Amino acid sequence: MDNILHITNGDSLTDYLKKSDYKGTYLTWREMLCEGPLVAIIDSEEFFNLRSTFLKEFYNVESNNYSFKNELNTLNHTETYAAIVLWFEYDLFCHINMLGAINLLQQKNIQKPIYIVISGFVGDEKSLKGLCELNPDQLQTHYNQRVELTPKDKKLAMDLWKIYCGTDHHLLASYPVHTFSFKYLNNCLKAHIERFPNQKTGLNVLETTILKTIRNKEVKSERQLLRYMLNDQGYYGFGDIQLRRMIHKLDIFFELSNGIFKLNSKGHGILSEQQNFMNEMDDHMVYGGAQQMDFRFHLGKNQLVKSVSNAN
Length: 312
Hints:
With about 300 residues, the chain is of the alpha/beta class. The chain contains 11 helices and 12 strands. A hairpin with a 1-residue loop joins strand 9 and strand 10 (about 290).
């Protein structure tokens, strides 16, 4: 196909595709919609104001560095494109962005074939791979096997986006995802509901993994801990700044002792599920339309339950 619009998951992939001579126009999706407040209509001042305020408050990103709004101008003139190809990965970070991208195309009523290229497991390899980790032949194979979204696929993406931008995230725990187009979507939805605080401890699954890493490994620096987490986060796909913020949030549970991170009494207490620190862990994080503290993850039921203060 000629004159393709490629929507990529980041600058590294955009550069890789250009160097690999994938012809077309590029829109780089410079956002992280898996964290922070959202409204369903993406190309709106309300959306951009919410996002710039959140990124400034949580990650100290100045509003004049928020380029996402300008990037979307590429979608104002799509009549010459033969098709649109979305390049995203297996993880929650990418899947929420991908759902946003699909919804934006529908909101703009862009009537072009939409294809997705999603990386993950490759052949018989046991580890998941990002798109930039693929060699040129593997990347070409993924592109050759791109999947065209059906009307049902688009409807599913719109339904999930509406739920994510709303308050009823417990619906995502059992949402019927009967499609082969989004082969990692169920994994990502499961990862999402486990981001809410565990009902016994007040920590979510990633926060628990960080403390277990400190307990089980000889961690000598934040940089080393960050490296462990970047390689041991399953289907989340979070970047350095997200994981670093999470580590800093947990510093009440560990200390540096003789050059090694060690859990303190609070850290041991929370991992033994003898104490609940939910109130102390509240940093007002929002996922789409839901406050993190609106729900608790019930491990036994594998579902979200409304927090007592929000049960009504």
